[in-house]
Amino acid sequence: MSVPTAIVLTVSILVFVVEDQEHIQHLLQEGLTDGGFSVSMASTGEEAIAMLDAEGASFSALITDINLPGQLTGWDVAKHARELSETLPVIYMTGASAHEWASKGVPNSQLMPKPFAVAPAFHSNTRSISVS
C-alpha cells in the first residue's frame, strides 16, 4: 500500500509597486518579499501604465507613490489600473499629497503617509491584498 504524496500548492500574490526613489524601492521589495509576496517594480507613471497594459499582466495589488517623475502621477496610474480591474486593491504612498486623497484617490483605496516603517505599514495595509 502506497502512502499518498502531499501536494503543496503555492499561490504567488504579485504586488505592483510604482516608486521612483531607489532606497524606498529596496525597502518595499524587501518588506513585501519577506511577507511572502512577489514584487514587480516601475519607476515612472509611464512605465507603470505600459506594464499594466502588457499582454499577460496580472497584478494582485498596486502600491504607488503619488508624485512620480514624468507626466503621469500615482493618481493616474491607479485610475488606469482600476479601469483594467475594478477590484484591484490600491495603496497610495505620499509625503506631500495626502490632502488630495479624498478627491483624487480611487474608491476603496488606502493611504500610507511617508515616512513609514515598512513592517507595521505593510502589516496593516496588506490585509486587503488577496488572491482574486
Automatic annotation (TrEMBL):
Keyword Cell membrane: no
Domain annotation Response regulatory: ranges: 14-129
Post-translational modification 4-aspartylphosphate, affected residues: D65
Signal peptide: none
Keywords: Phosphoprotein
Record-linked InterPro entries: Bact_response_regulator, CheY-like_superfamily, Sig_transdc_resp-reg_receiver
UniProt keyword Translocase, yes or no: no
A GO BP annotation: phosphorelay signal transduction system
UniProt protein name: Response regulator
Protein source organism: Lichenifustis flavocetrariae
